[in-house]
Structure formats: structure tokens, C-alpha cells
Amino acid sequence: MSINNLMTMIFEHLMIVAIATVISVAVGVILGVIAYWARRPGMVILWLAEAIQTIPSLALLALLMILFGLGNRTIIAGLVLYALLPIVRNTHTGLEAIPPHVRDAAQGMGMSKLQRLVKVELPMAFPMVFSGIKIAVVNSLSIAVMGVLIGAGGLGYPIYRGVQTQNLGRILSGAIPVMVMAVLFDFVMTKFEKRLVKQAK
Predict the structure, then answer these.
(1) Is the pTM of this model over 0.85?
(2) Which of 46, 164, 185, 192 is least surrounded by CB atoms within 10 angstroms?
(3) Above pLDDT 90, what percent of the chain?
(4) Rounded distance, CA 29 to CA 9, Å?
């Protein structure tokens, strides 16, 4: 495999994960806020997010393939669903952890519920939210490899072809970049997370 082909696959892999992450963050934070504001719907949302995690990735991708067909859209949809749990849960947990006197002070200043959320609560909960995003990104980098089974691009192809041909070099050409990216993203995002926690104190 040429370097150009490998770089193209790495770029496509990162784009798939990036698109899925953007969508999952937007949806996950909204669902986390709903879970924070409304207890009963929140219990259902958290339960559904946890239930999705119990579905084997191959089974979930097969179901999604019926809806979206072959290609990148299906793996992106699968990554979004798998990324929801850490983002929803951490958003909900971060908002719940805000001291009551902070909410009371914001309310006493005449802020509406939405204003308190945007100006006070979400900024304070962001370190916890970011932790959930980090988990989602690192997991997505690994799970995206499964996309090759439903016609998606990325680094799953050299791994799959390597398994078929029993070619260790080809397997490693896909597996090593995935591992390096996962470790790198985890390291960089953990550093940023620690900085956020320090700033929040």
C-alpha cells in the first residue's frame, strides 16, 4: 500500500469521526440538558443511551444499513449512537453537580431558566461535558474500523484485507494509525481537560 493511499484513508477515517462527533455533541448536550430539566424524561433518555451501548456493533450497523444503505452515512450514524451515552451522562452529571446556591444566585439576578443554563450552568459543567466528549472521540476512532463491513471508508479496509489475506503488514498498516490517533487524542484532550478543571476551581 502506498503512502498516499494510507494518508487518504487516515484523512477519511478522521473525517468520519469528526462528523459523528459534531453531531453527537449537539444531540448529546441537548438530551443531557433535557434530562437535567425533566426528571422522568431524563430517566428514559439515560436508559435509552445505556441500552444502545449493549447492542453489538455489528448488529447495530446491520440495522442502520437497512435505513441508510452502504457507505459512510451508516457508520457515522452508528458512531453518533454509541457516542451519546458518555456525552449525555456527563452533561447531566455536570449540571446536577452545580451547587444550589449558584443557581439561586443566578435566579436572584433575574436570569431566566435558559439564561442560567447558557451563562452559568453549562460553562461550569463544561469540564465534565468535555470529559464525555473525549471518551466519545477515543471510542469512535476504534469503532469506525467496523465501517469497512458496511462499505464505509477509513482504516478498516487495510485491516480487513490483511485479515483476508493473512498479511500482518497490511493489518498493522491500518491498526497502528488507529492506535496512534487514539493515544494522541486521549493525551491531548486529557491535558486540555485538566486545564479546564483547574480554571473551574
Answers:
(1) yes
(2) 164
(3) 77
(4) 30
